[in-house]
Input
Amino acid sequence: MTAEPVCAGDAPIPVDLAEGQAVRWCACGRSAAQPFCDGSHQGCGIGPVAFVAARAKTYFFCTCKRSGRQPLCDGRHNFMAPPQRERG
Output
């Protein structure tokens, strides 16, 4: 069974990446290392998304986990209710 992603924030996180740099974006919202995966998805059925920077620049990674351009932000967080974060 696949769980729904957890909203990890209400704004994108800007990250400077070098051309060709590879990262693993957290798609489940459970990582403490947002916007990147720390392995917290184990058992939830939602794995990380691989991303390779096409060129050196600042990329804006989604934290609401609802973007239509995952892993990058598309502004969808502007139309959502405030995030309901999991308490641990």
Q: What stands out?
A: The mean pLDDT is 89. Strands lie at 13-17, 22-25, 49-52, 57-61. The radius of gyration is 13 Å.
